[in-house]
Amino acid sequence: MKANIKKISELTGFSPATVSNALNNKRGVNKETAEKIRQTAREIGYLAEWHVSSIKLVMYRASGAIVNDSPFFSSLVAGVEAEARNFGFDTLVCNLYQHAADYDSQVEELVNDPSSALLILATELDSQEASRFQEALAPVVMLDNWYEDLNFNAVLIDNTDAASAAVRYLIEKGHRKIGHLKGSYGIKNFYYREEGYIRTLRESGLECDPEHTFLLTPSMEGACADMEALLQREPDLPTAFFADNDMIALGAIRALKQNGYNVPGDVSVVGFDDLPFCAISSPPLTTIKVYNREMGSAAVRRLMELVKYGDSYCTKVQVRSSFVERDSVRDLNGASQEA
């Protein structure tokens, strides 16, 4: 028999009206009964039959240090909204702050609403908090993060491979002392980028010198201030840096220039994201282009598959990036540099 309310009623022994009320999160059904009905609905694949009427894009913030009003996230949101319209859905953008007084009640409301499929911007979302969304009554897709220990569909950046491509480019340009401008906020994107940086140096037989890893705040102003403080110690600088994001790269470049260094003459820098102002920075920034709008579109398409067909399997989609060569890297081939 087709999975429907009548079938759930037969399997659970509850009336069709009670089943309908439980699945639509209406009052009057006790917690144990509602959970039994929902569990049966999940087991027979009734999730695909639920009448999702909207998409909620949850902008999760643990600190807000990463998820902010930068063009990266505004473009991603635009991609979500445009693709949702293609499917005839409205997008409701919800701001979820982990340290807000009503945080727990907001999570409960999101999890227990069967009418809204959830796209969760999970850049700052750790595994413990993400696990709370496993019991959501509507389909869920994680955006910009993935969890090895949790069973979620996800769309994210190819962080490790992209960082590796950036470091390989620097090596091809003759650089042998390559440092890392590392974001001080511990998100998984930065972890995977560091993994690509280290792996590529080691595969190329180059030293990964911890003295050349500078921990910087992941904002332009913060990175500039942190780099300024580090430069006051007159450190031994590498010939090039890979930065965890463009904000860090541009902030560090500003500090370097303020302290008399020429970029790229003295120090080369590669960023990550390709924010709009990278093309007009001084110098124009060589960087990794992330297709954030396309990420948003891909996440909506996967969400619509879940709405239509259910969640019998999970997918991890990594959207490929591309390399954008501008003017912030010096070609050292044929030039001498210290061993």
From TrEMBL:
Taxonomy, superkingdom: Bacteria
Key word Transcription regulation present: yes
Keyword terms of this UniProt record: DNA-binding, Transcription, Transcription regulation
GO MF, one example: DNA-binding transcription factor activity
InterPro entries, sorted: HTH_LacI, LacI/GalR-like_sensor, Lambda_DNA-bd_dom_sf, Peripla_BP_I, Rhodanese-like_dom
Matches recorded under Pfam families: LacI (PF00356), Peripla_BP_3 (PF13377)
All residue ranges annotated as the HTH lacI-type domain in the record: 3-46
Rhodanese domain ranges (all copies): 163-196
CDD domains found in the cross-reference section: HTH_LacI, PBP1_LacI-like
SMART domains per record: HTH_LACI
PANTHER family in the record: HTH-TYPE TRANSCRIPTIONAL REGULATOR GALS, LACI-RELATED TRANSCRIPTIONAL REPRESSOR
Descriptive protein name: Substrate-binding domain-containing protein
Source organism of this protein record: Candidatus Acutalibacter ornithocaccae
